Amino acid sequence: MTEQGTRRASLARETAETRVSVELEVDGSGAASARTGIGFLDHMVEAFARHGRFDLEVRAEGDLQVDAHHTMEDVALALGQAFDQALGERAGIVRMGDATVPLDEALVQAVVDLSGRPYAAVDLEFSGERIGEAPTELVEHVLGSFAVGARATLHVRQLAGSNDHHVAEAAMKALGRALDSATRVDARLGGEVPSTKGTLTA
Questions:
Q1: Contacts of 54 (CB under 8 A, 6+ apart)
Q2: pLDDT digit string (tens) for 39-68?
Q3: Which of 36, 53, 123, 151 has its CA 20 to 30 A from that of 112?
Q4: How far apart are CA 144 and CA 150, in angstroms?
Q5: Vertex 37, ends 140 and 31: CA angle to 5°?
Q6: C-alpha span between 48 and 41 (Å, rounded)
């Protein structure tokens, strides 16, 4: 549900494979806490929120005895859905955001359009199979699942980098900063939806 007059969302997603809860305030300070059972996923979610200045709490229980896939996917879907709910009709927002973030040798760009059309183009290269308990192949899936849940167009591309941890973390920080820009309210719009169609949700 979205609280009236605020940009907050409280969301629960439950399947036979996972249980995920998300508490989000878009206009926050970057206070973040994630407990998913996957340490590196927690780190990515918290870095995303800290650099996007979102107040965020994520809790998840998943079938980690199988693997990390369902938990990582459903956390990303629920996180995207929370943004979709919190932004409502997306009236008055900037809508598009672009950020390029360095982390030592890594450099990653994220561009987001809160268009209502889910699409993700992700170009990241990893040399190893895992970062902690997280399969590196799922980093792209996390970004794509977020785009689906948020109903957003997302482009993420690696410009430099050789350390897998640095590349993945820079990608999440870049997404946070790009989303911070895209969700800001533009007073010049006077509360109108920034689209020639008149809607970003239909």
A1: 24, 25, 26, 28, 30, 32, 48, 176, 179, 180
A2: 999 999 999 999 999 999 999 999 999 999
A3: 36
A4: 10
A5: 80
A6: 11
Residue reference for tokens 């973030």: 101
What whole-number distance in Å separates Cα of residue 108 and Cα of residue 201? Answer: 29
What pLDDT sits at residue 4? Answer: 39
- pTM given for the model: 0.94
Partners of 108 in the β-ladder: 101, 158
Q: What Cα–Cα distance (Å) separates residue 50 from each residue in 134, 161, 192, 195?
A: 20, 22, 29, 29
Report in angstroms the alpha-carbon separations of 66 from 28, 62, 63, 69, 71: 35, 9, 6, 8, 10
Q: Which of 56, 62, 54, 21 is nearest to 38 (CA)?
A: 62
Paired residues of 12 in beta bridges: 21
What residues contact 43, with CB distance under 8 A and at least 6 apart? 34, 169
Structure tokens at 141: 């899936």
Instruction: Give the DSSP per-residue string, 161-187.
Output: ---HHHHHHHHHHHHHHHHHHHHSB-G
Q: What are the structure tokens assigned to 27, written together?
A: 């206009």
- How far apart CA 159 and CA 27 sit, in angstroms, is 29
